[in-house]
Design brief:
With 113 residues, this protein is mainly α. Helix content is 78%, strand content 11%. The chain has two domains: 1-71; 73-113. α2 crosses α4. The longest helix has 40 residues, at 73-112. The chain crosses the membrane at residues 95-112.
Length: 113
């Protein structure tokens, strides 16, 4: 972090690259910082999705987190299938809602014009 702040204060960084002098301007430091932030954000999203999946297992199984560690593989597969089935049902319902809304909007526009 301190190195990044030092790079931001300088307008140009001079670095030796294979015997030749290579100059990086302010844009290079900014792009490096943005790439680092994107990587950190993706790591946070992965951990958040894992926590969400774990919470879904707890909700649908009706067991505590400690009891999930001792769950049988067959029961685990049934719980996962139930979660998938409910997710498919919800996505179909959402898609149907969007289609009906789109048709209603088109009919309204045709009626007005």
């Amino acid at each position: 972090m301190k190195l990044l702040l030092e790079q931001i204060h300088f307008t140009q960084l001079e670095l030796k690259d294979r015997g030749s002098l290579k100059i990086f301007n302010m844009g290079q430091a900014r792009r490096n910082a943005e790439a680092k932030n994107r990587k950190l954000n993706s790591l946070q999203l992965r951990s958040r999705s894992f926590k969400d999946k774990k919470e879904l297992l707890v909700v649908y199984s009706g067991k505590s987190v400690r009891q999930l560690k001792n769950i049988a593989p067959e029961e685990f597969l049934l719980i996962k299938e139930e979660i998938r089935r409910k997710a498919r049902k919800e996505s179909r319902r959402s898609l149907l809602t969007w289609i009906i809304t789109g048709i209603a909007l088109i009919l309204l526009l045709l009626f007005l014009f």
